[in-house]
Amino acid sequence: MDDFILILPSKEDAQRALEKINQFVTEELHLELNRKTQISPLKNGVNFCGYKIWATHMKIRTESKRRIKRKLKKFQQKYKEGDMEAEEIKQVLMSWAGYAKHADSYWLINKIFNQFSFSRQS
Question: Are residues 31 and 76 in the same domain?
Answer without folding.
Answer: no
